[in-house]
Amino acid sequence: MFRYPNGKVYQPKEQEVKKKRQQQHPSFTYSNRGMSLEDDLNETNQYYLAHQIAVIHKKPTPVQIVNVDYPRRSAAVIREAYFKQSSTTDYNGIYKGKYIDFEAKETKNKTSFPLQNFHNHQIDHMKSVIRQGGICFVILSAFQQFYFLEAEPLFTFWDRKENGGRKSISSDEINKYAHVIPQGYQARIDYLKIIDKLYF
Amino acid sequence: MFRYPNGKVYQPKEQEVKKKRQQQHPSFTYSNRGMSLEDDLNETNQYYLAHQIAVIHKKPTPVQIVNVDYPRRSAAVIREAYFKQSSTTDYNGIYKGKYIDFEAKETKNKTSFPLQNFHNHQIDHMKSVIRQGGICFVILSAFQQFYFLEAEPLFTFWDRKENGGRKSISSDEINKYAHVIPQGYQARIDYLKIIDKLYF
């Protein structure tokens, strides 16, 4: 054991980081910490952007604005507005010249991922993106992991539900068809690693 | 002149459409009619989407939500929110496998297009998109036309301003460096025609 002159125990950076991650992610669920799946993805995308790796952003939440106050010329205050359902996925952008499009969802369910997390028009949007030759997928936060599930197998599970089959994807199916996303310190949910493996 | 049995004068569809367009667009400005540049682009993009030509959407207006009321479980009402400045352009999507990214702006100015219509972070975003190999441009509604100006010449004009030069693009420069977008009935601002010419 090595100590600094001030008596503090020396720990190499890497270990410090890992320890911190473990403290932050005791079970990789979002319930007990300040960060959300959206926060982690935004930080990941900011890292990609700052290092000129990719340009991928979350779209703003769609809001129907009904009433706006102008107390001063400079500051408009929205006084009445409503959440609208999005007709697309939440994230899109470009990576190595390719169009990237995805949705991120989480479940606390321990044995399956409920398909009610998705909406019909989102699935339609994903199908349109695939037809145009884009890279389209979903990021699932489930079973203490982040999963990368391509749009095509998702369509299969969706169609099964639409035809009266089960309303969720079982954890076995996810482990078979989805890819576990490596977690990093800077690129927290490093999904481009999976895209590199699958498309480049 | 040909008349229907009910006495109405026959007009071929094409002419009817043209006449209607001329009534709607007496001088191609938005001041005297209900439609905005955004409306025309949304209709154009809806046409592209419905005909599986491209998947391009306007991003929602970014809003900072401060206070939400829940009078009933089903209906959340946003009671205090503020407009935020976007860190990207307003429109993006995919066409023939290529990532498409653009901003749309208009001016009533008759001799030049003011660069104050753009923000530094939008220009930064466009530069990032170009670095990733995307198709990036602006649509300018000016001088009774719609113009397609690629990001690269826009950067040149922007840098000229940043270096103390003129704060606008002259109409001569626009006519030299930008492409006039053909107007149609269904694809009102048919900018993919220009993309076809320049990139495919």
TrEMBL record, chains A, B:
<keyword id="KW-0378">Hydrolase</keyword>
<dbReference type="GO" id="GO:0006310">
    <property type="term" value="P:DNA recombination"/>
</dbReference>
<feature type="binding site">
    <location>
        <position position="103"/>
    </location>
    <ligand>
        <name>Mg(2+)</name>
    </ligand>
</feature>
<keyword id="KW-0233">DNA recombination</keyword>
<keyword id="KW-0963">Cytoplasm</keyword>
<feature type="site" description="Transition state stabilizer">
    <location>
        <position position="105"/>
    </location>
</feature>
<feature type="binding site">
    <location>
        <position position="122"/>
    </location>
    <ligand>
        <name>Mg(2+)</name>
    </ligand>
</feature>
<keyword id="KW-0540">Nuclease</keyword>
<dbReference type="InterPro" id="IPR011335">
    <property type="entry name" value="Restrct_endonuc-II-like"/>
</dbReference>
<comment type="similarity">
    <text>Belongs to the RecU family.</text>
</comment>
<dbReference type="GO" id="GO:0006281">
    <property type="term" value="P:DNA repair"/>
</dbReference>
<dbReference type="GO" id="GO:0003676">
    <property type="term" value="F:nucleic acid binding"/>
</dbReference>
<dbReference type="GO" id="GO:0007059">
    <property type="term" value="P:chromosome segregation"/>
</dbReference>
<dbReference type="InterPro" id="IPR004612">
    <property type="entry name" value="Resolv_RecU"/>
</dbReference>
<feature type="compositionally biased region" description="Polar residues">
    <location>
        <begin position="25"/>
        <end position="34"/>
    </location>
</feature>
<feature type="region of interest" description="Disordered">
    <location>
        <begin position="1"/>
        <end position="35"/>
    </location>
</feature>
<keyword id="KW-0227">DNA damage</keyword>
<keyword id="KW-0460">Magnesium</keyword>
<dbReference type="GO" id="GO:0005737">
    <property type="term" value="C:cytoplasm"/>
</dbReference>
<dbReference type="InterPro" id="IPR011856">
    <property type="entry name" value="tRNA_endonuc-like_dom_sf"/>
</dbReference>
<dbReference type="GO" id="GO:0000287">
    <property type="term" value="F:magnesium ion binding"/>
</dbReference>
<keyword id="KW-0234">DNA repair</keyword>
<keyword id="KW-0479">Metal-binding</keyword>
<dbReference type="Pfam" id="PF03838">
    <property type="entry name" value="RecU"/>
</dbReference>
<comment type="function">
    <text>Endonuclease that resolves Holliday junction intermediates in genetic recombination. Cleaves mobile four-strand junctions by introducing symmetrical nicks in paired strands. Promotes annealing of linear ssDNA with homologous dsDNA. Required for DNA repair, homologous recombination and chromosome segregation.</text>
</comment>
<dbReference type="GO" id="GO:0008821">
    <property type="term" value="F:crossover junction DNA endonuclease activity"/>
</dbReference>
<feature type="binding site">
    <location>
        <position position="90"/>
    </location>
    <ligand>
        <name>Mg(2+)</name>
    </ligand>
</feature>
<keyword id="KW-0255">Endonuclease</keyword>
<feature type="binding site">
    <location>
        <position position="88"/>
    </location>
    <ligand>
        <name>Mg(2+)</name>
    </ligand>
</feature>
<protein>
    <recommendedName>
        <fullName>Holliday junction resolvase RecU</fullName>
        <ecNumber>3.1.21.10</ecNumber>
    </recommendedName>
</protein>
